[in-house]
């Protein structure tokens, strides 16, 4: 999405056409499923407009330390059915990355977490749509220009089937 933003537009247009009020149809496990959204098609339309204007960004390099941090959060939340950026012991994202010695001077870190979809492309699209988050923080994370590295981990989730954690790092 960062390197070829236009490549998602056709799929998003098709998704946008499935809305009936706040409900939309998505393909999950080969079946059309109706999902309830908070905002309806508004964030999808916004994303399409942004992607039409978005300049391609440099690709992110996979980083093993960031991946390990992502996997720790998946292993912590998944079996318990936890959600959000806090771990089951109550530590925030910044506390977690500090414990992992990832929060080094001159760098900034960010995190996105997707729940429900086993398909990486669909998970990324849902994060970029960012339904119900008026500040569009997940979308901003995806398109932050100074990110250079990412660590990604996927796993099972007790209540929401699947989860993916992305930890980003770049120069401040």
What integer value in Å does the Rg equal? Answer: 16 Å
Q: Percentage of helical residues?
A: 25-40%
Mean pLDDT: 92
Give start-end ranges of low-pLDDT stretches: none
Count of separate DSSP helical elements:
6
Q: In total, how many beta strands?
A: 6
Q: In one word, what is the shape?
A: globular
Structural class: alpha+beta
**Strand sequence of the main sheet, in spatial order?**
3-5-6-4
Q: Give the percentage of residues in beta strands.
A: 25-35%
Task: Measure the end-to-end span.
Answer: 22 Å
Task: Tell me what you see in this structure.
- The chain is α+β, with helices and mostly antiparallel strands.
- 33% of the residues lie in helices and 26% in strands.
- It contains six helices and six strands, in the order αββαβααβααββ.
- The strands form two sheets. A four-stranded mixed beta sheet has the order 3-5-6-4, with helices on both faces. The chain has a two-stranded antiparallel sheet with strand order 1-2.
- The mean pLDDT is 92.
Short account of what is shown:
With 172 residues, this protein is an alpha+beta fold.
List the helices and strands and how they pair.
Blueprint: H1 9-16, E1 23-28, E2 31-36, H2 42-53, E3 61-62, H3 64-77, H4 93-99, E4 107-115, H5 120-129, H6 137-142, E5 147-157, E6 161-171
Helix pairs in contact: 1-2
Label this structure with key terms.
172 residues; alpha+beta; four-stranded mixed beta sheet; 6 helices; 6 strands
């Amino acid at each position: 999405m960062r390197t070829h933003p236009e490549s998602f537009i056709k799929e998003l247009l098709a998704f946008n056409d499935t809305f009936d009020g706040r409900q939309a149809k998505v393909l999950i496990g080969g079946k059309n499923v109706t999902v309830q959204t908070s905002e309806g098609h508004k964030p999808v339309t916004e994303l399409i407009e942004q992607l039409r204007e978005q300049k391609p960004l440099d690709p992110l390099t996979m980083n093993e330390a960031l991946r390990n941090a992502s996997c720790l959060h998946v292993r912590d939340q998944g079996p318990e059915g936890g959600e959000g950026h806090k771990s089951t012991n109550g530590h925030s994202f910044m506390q977690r990355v500090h414990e992992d010695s990832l929060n080094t001077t001159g760098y900034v870190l960010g995190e996105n977490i997707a729940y429900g979809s086993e398909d990486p492309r669909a998970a990324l699209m849902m994060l970029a749509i960012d339904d119900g988050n008026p500040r569009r923080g997940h979308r901003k994370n995806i398109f932050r220009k100074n990110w250079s590295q990412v660590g990604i981990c996927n796993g099972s989730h007790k209540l929401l089937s699947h989860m993916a954690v992305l930890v980003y790092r770049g120069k401040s």
